[in-house]
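=== RUN LOG ===
request id: a7f3
mode: sequence -> structure
chains: 1
length: 383
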Amino acid sequence: MATMTSRERLWASLNHTEPDRIPLDIGSTQVTGIAVIAYRNLRRHLGLPEVQMNICDTVQQLALPDDDLVERWGIDVRGLFPLNAHNWKITNQDAGEYWAYKDEWGITYHYPKDNGLYYSVVENPIGGMMTSPEEINAYPWPNTGDPQRIAGLRALAERYRAQGKAVMIKGVLAGIFEMAQRVRGMSNCLVDLLADEASTEALFDKLLQLKLDFWEMALPQLADVVDVISEADDYGTQTSQLMSPATFRKLMKPRLLTLCRRIKQLAPRSKLFFHSCGSVRELLPDFIEAGIDILNPIHVKATGMEPVALKRDFGKDMVFWGGGVDTQGILPNGTPQEVRDDVRRNVEALAPGGGFVFSTVHNIQADVPPENLVALWETLREY
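=== RESULT ===
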């Protein structure tokens, strides 16, 4: 088979055919990234020069891979990161043992001064009381449709295309359900699902509109230079779901359908990538109905997410992006041989027939040894 460009390789797999090799993604999204510390250690291990880190996500402390690593490792997908609360207007205030940051949503984070790894949410802006639909609508929400958020992204996408790379773009806020938890607090939000359906629906509708405001501004400017559009919402836990499938279908699914269908209207030539951690097998028929083309991640250690079974039951309808290696236990704590064995096991389950893009289950964390990342890459190259 002739050697493909990265973009040709990705599209072959997205179209459920086998490319010349498995497409590789490290760092095209804020859920397939690499922590700054792990990235620095990897560069040193590979003998690459020290660089000024380009941080694409300050809250998660994720580094954007540089061109030299992208070319050396054959990374196939490059990401566009619109201005958002994780990379824009981040101002730290001294809070004793922590740096405090209040973002454009009113969410407060703390980052430990000593050996901090990432920012954690410590205060939710509308979390202290039951909130009426009227109060939700009156809250000072950010302007997600501000064109400033995509300034320079078209030129960057064209540069990536000129390099032969595929291009991915993400939105400017987390999933509707996840964002509701950030502004209300997780406990409040989960109780609201059962105790205050009217306010829950008002909050979900507001967050849906804020998503649509962004995509309706951005995609008319960028759709022709973007291959994959990234959306997300976390519905799964390690063993089940955060809400029952019945509650999902009543409260979340209609809004997910609206969002996905509008994105497809605005960018009919792009594929739709959807990230949801954890055990989401029961929801996959709903995802397919919504028009989701790509599932991320394949959370291989979660209940019901066994790669062989997922490929058998859903591989004709969905592309699997991620699940190349377990990021919870094996990648940070295993030996290089254990990493190789896990990569082989997952690749052999997910890659046959195409429809697979290699990425780790989730972001590569700070404690991952560079030797394990090299073992991952070397094993992938065998295929």
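=== NOTES ===
The chain has one domain: 6-89+128-381.
The longest helix spans residues 197-222.
=== END ===
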